[in-house]
């Protein structure tokens, strides 16, 4: 019976696999036969900017790959900005419509897109924005437009920034499962939720300062394009002066309250066509296919951009994980390529493994001996993310970048109380005094804790030294702005952790200046496997994603968030240089 069941299962599995391969073959034939001609940009067109997928700094896709974009869950910030740059000089594109976004990007990424749109407007082209509802970050992006419109029954969210931190001390006491914490730094609040039931004043102070700095940067940008003073924008936020379309118009946040068909009439008017004529739209996805084939910078000499994005974990790494394998390989290729005259390291990371951070730091130091290395910080470059950046010749951050958090910690789970409650008793046997390592089921011995504490202190001192050497600061100066404290890009400039405020393009220009280049091309590293390749290699991974989505639907977003935060600590192997918890800024 078992043989028959296994035999039938094998047949069904083979048929399923052949079916998938056949479908993929048809897709391949379709893509190869269609080629570049599928992208057609009409004269007198509007580029429709809809950003409804997760935005990463870089997808690593190869535009010559016929499968590029298939099964990709994210959009590349670099591709979005290139598309806007190409459209700026494309006579067929007369304007941009920012349409019904629910932008899934960090503040720094949103700010970078907004800056590109400002450059687009500077060419004399128009930008209009419309939404059925504007979330706060959506409105921040839309505020760059010449005119902003909202649905008559829509909603505009404009109330200031906030974040929420979950605390687990009481949960540990009730469950009998405890996180043993060893740390350095009075501000190292990544572990505070496991030690306290309430937020410390030190943590509240740093978060308040951070949020205020980010908010100030946002309203400064909005004030310039909407001609509303910063003080009035704060009053609007405090009084919820944009909570209805009527109030949003009265307060000056938007220009008019219209239905979508009326909005299209305004677009037709901007294009100088009749209202009953069809508007030529080019979707962002289509235009990216076209713009990716355009070379904005060219020359025999090259500047390499190495993208490091995601948590820092020991190992190979990938599109959303910074591992020493893939990043160091990229740095070595850039360093040894004679045509590459300078390197820009783009960092977007909350940190992670201190060991991996130091291994990457060393490779940056070796590259710096050969050619200039400039760092561009994205949404976040904190803890380990700042560690790998600290040794560069020059560091750029966006005003809304979250950075700093110079500190280290270790967490070790302990189940002594739970084991006692359910009747588990663990006995250990060893040959030497220290042969028996830490046990989940026994109280942490003072000798083991002292051993970990010693490693924490040594790692923290190494971290301070790396920053001290890279930033030309004394150890005492670094320590005074360290202790795990997080800073905005604007604050980091004031305390000496970054050199200038600017985006990736600013960092590239600085690299060209240091390398004395007047003309140059761009080489991007690393190259990742396409989403299609990753899908075919790991169908189980796709299955796991389906399971995760089903679990989220079953238990709700908030409970799922708690579960994921608890699960993430399983990945925290070794000493961590990591951001204070997951900051979800709203």
Automatic annotation (TrEMBL):
The active site is at 188 (proton donor/acceptor), 383 (nucleophile). It is found in: Membrane. One of its GO terms (molecular function) is serine-type endopeptidase activity. InterPro entries: ClpP (IPR001907), ClpP/crotonase-like_dom_sf (IPR029045), Pept_S49_pIV (IPR004634), Pept_S49_SppA (IPR004635), Peptidase_S49 (IPR002142), S49_SppA_67K_type_N (IPR047217), S49_SppA_C (IPR047272). The keyword Transmembrane helix applies. SUPFAM superfamilies: ClpP/crotonase. Belongs to the peptidase S49 family. This is Protease-4. It comes from Maribacter caenipelagi. The lineage of its organism: Bacteria, Pseudomonadati, Bacteroidota, Flavobacteriia, Flavobacteriales.
């Amino acid at each position: 019976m078992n043989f028959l069941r296994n035999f039938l299962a094998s047949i069904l599995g083979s048929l399923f696999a052949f079916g998938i391969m056949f479908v993929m073959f048809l897709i391949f034939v379709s893509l190869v036969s269609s080629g570049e001609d599928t992208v057609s940009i009409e004269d007198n067109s509007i580029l429709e900017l809809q950003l409804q997928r997760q935005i990463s700094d870089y997808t690593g896709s190869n535009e010559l790959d016929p499968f590029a974009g298939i099964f990709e869950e994210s959009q590349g910030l670099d591709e979005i900005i290139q598309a806007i740059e190409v459209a700026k000089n494309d006579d067929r594109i007369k304007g941009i419509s920012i349409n019904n976004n629910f932008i899934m990007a960090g503040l720094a990424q949103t700010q970078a897109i907004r800056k590109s749109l400002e450059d687009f407007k500077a060419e004399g082209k128009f930008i209009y924005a419309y939404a059925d509802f504007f979330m706060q970050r959506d409105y921040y992006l839309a505020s760059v437009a010449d005119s902003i419109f909202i649905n008559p029954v829509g909603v505009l969210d404009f109330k200031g920034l906030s974040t929420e931190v979950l605390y687990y001390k009481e949960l540990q006491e009730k469950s009998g499962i405890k996180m043993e914490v060893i740390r350095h730094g009075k501000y190292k609040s990544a572990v505070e939720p496991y030690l306290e039931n309430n937020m410390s004043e030190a943590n509240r102070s740093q978060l308040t300062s951070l949020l205020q700095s980010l908010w100030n940067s946002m309203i400064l940008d909005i004030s310039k394009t909407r001609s509303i003073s910063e003080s009035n924008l704060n009053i609007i936020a405090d009084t919820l002066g944009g909570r209805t379309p009527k109030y949003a118009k009265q307060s000056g946040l938007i220009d008019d309250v219209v239905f979508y068909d009326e909005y299209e009439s305004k677009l037709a008017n901007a294009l100088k066509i009749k209202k009953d004529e069809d508007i030529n739209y080019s979707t962002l996805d289509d235009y990216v296919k076209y713009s990716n084939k355009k070379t904005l910078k060219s020359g025999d000499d090259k500047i390499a951009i190495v993208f490091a994005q995601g948590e820092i974990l020991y190992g190979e790494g990938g599109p959303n994980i910074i591992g020493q394998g893939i990043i160091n390989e990229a740095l070595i290729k850039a360093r040894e390529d004679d045509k590459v005259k300078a390197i820009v390291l783009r960092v977007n990371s909350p940190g992670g493994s201190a060991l991996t951070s130091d291994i990457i730091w060393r490779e940056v130091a070796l590259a710096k001996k050969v050619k200039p290395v400039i760092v561009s910080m994205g949404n976040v470059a904190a803890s380990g993310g700042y560690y790998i950046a600290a040794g560069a010749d020059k560091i750029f951050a966006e005003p809304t970048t979250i950075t700093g958090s110079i500190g280290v910690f270790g967490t070790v789970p302990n189940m002594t109380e739970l084991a006692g409650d359910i009747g588990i008793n663990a006995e250990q046997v060893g040959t030497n005094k220290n042969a028996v390592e830490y046990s989940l089921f026994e109280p942490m011995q003072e000798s083991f804790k002292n051993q970990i504490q010693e490693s924490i202190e040594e790692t923290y001192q190494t971290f301070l030294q790396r920053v001290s050497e890279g930033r030309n600061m004394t150890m005492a100066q670094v320590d005074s702005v360290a202790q795990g404290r997080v800073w905005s890009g604007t604050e980091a400039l004031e305390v000496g952790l970054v050199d200038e405020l600017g985006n990736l393009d600013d960092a590239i220009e600085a690299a060209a200046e240091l390398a004395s280049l007047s003309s140059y091309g761009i080489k991007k590293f690393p190259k990742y496997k396409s989403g299609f390749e990753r899908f075919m290699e790991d169908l189980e991974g796709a299955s796991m994603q389906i399971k995760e989505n089903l679990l989220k639907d079953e238990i709700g977003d908030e409970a799922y968030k708690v579960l994921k935060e608890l699960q993430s600590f399983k990945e925290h192997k070794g000493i961590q240089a990591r951001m204070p918890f997951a900051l979800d800024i709203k």
